[in-house]
Each structure stands twice: as structure tokens, then as C-alpha cells.
Amino acid sequence: MRRRIWVGAVALTFAVGGLAASASATPVRGALDVSGLPSAETKGPTGYWLEWNGAVLPRSPREELGRHLAVVLVGEGEPAPLKYELRGGILNPEVVVVRAKSAFTIENTDVFAHQLGAEGAAGFESIGTSPGQTRTITIPAAGHWEVRDKLRPTLRGWVHSIADLVAVAEVDARGRFSFGNVTPGSYTLVVYFRDKEVARQAVNVAGPRELNVGSVQVRISAAN
Asked: pTM value?
């Protein structure tokens, strides 16, 4: 499923994955209540997102929560195919969550090449991707790694490979998230920022009506 989110003047387009649709599938939604993210007013060394990268204007993480945070469900089940994008010189979203041993794709929608890689992650070696090309990646082991681009030093992201991933939410710029189709059952909702898990809570999906899990508290410290 492909979604487009407008953040300012930049369209962030990426595919989000849920469980395979079924007659009893239930939409799940909620909102992130985030504190501790750096802002444009932060003193001292700035993050890469506050610096001009040649393609897009710098923005505060507070203005684009959907790109800086990932919300997923873990438990029993198989996720839909996961698709991510390179757009405007950045990885959208920058926090990529995948299922270990399952293939996912990253499409380069930019007019210039990228050479992404996650050092130490088998299957995600630094390989060039020309404009318009799509790269298929499979990471066999669970773990967390930083993603860098040898051709674009300002690009930075993170990949989380999880053995029991079942769905990845769509998260908008204000932190509202939604899973399109979730099979009834017991899951754990997990939130990631960069290479860290920053929130976790149990979710019980009974169906068939939409489940609103309400506000999820996310606290990000300087250590993150």
C-alpha cells in the first residue's frame, strides 16, 4: 500500500506494510505524544536534519515525526511486503523496520545515484542504486544498524531487523499512526527512534471495529 504525506512542500512517499487483508482484519490507530526531540533552537552541534544537504531544506524533527519515528506491531503473523524510498536526498522514512529473513525494497526516486549500506548487516552491503532503480534486500539476522550513503555523506538512517515483525504503521508529520489491516490477536506495539526502542505497550485487537489505542507516550533522552 502506497501513501503520500505532505510535509511542508515536500511529499514523503513510502509504502507501509500490514498483515495480509482478511475478512476479520481490523484498522488500528493512535497518536504519539513525543517529548525530547531536538529542535531547530538546540544549541551546540546540529543534527544532519538541520543542515542543507543539496536537495531539501533543513527541518526540525518536531516538524516531521513520520520520518524520524517508526511504529510497528510484533507478534504472530506475516507482514505485507515492505517498500521504502529514497526521495529528496533522504531515506523516507529514515527509520526502516523489516522482518529478519524477509525481503524488502528501497526505490531510488531521486535523479541522482545513491550507495546505501549498513555496516555489519549481512545482506545490506554498500551497493549503488541508479535513479529509478529499486534494490531488493534481505537481512538474515535480527539486529539494529546505522545506514549511510557513500555518495551522499549527509544521508543517515537506521534499520531494525526483527524476527517477529507483523506490521509497520503509516505515521504522519504530527505523529498520528495507523495500521490498515490487523488480524485479531495479541501484539506488542513498539516505537523506534534512530537505533533505539523508545516505547512499548501491549495491544489486544478484538475486531472487527477500528481500534484506537489512544496516546502513546514517547520520551527521548539525550542518550538517544
From this structure: 0.79
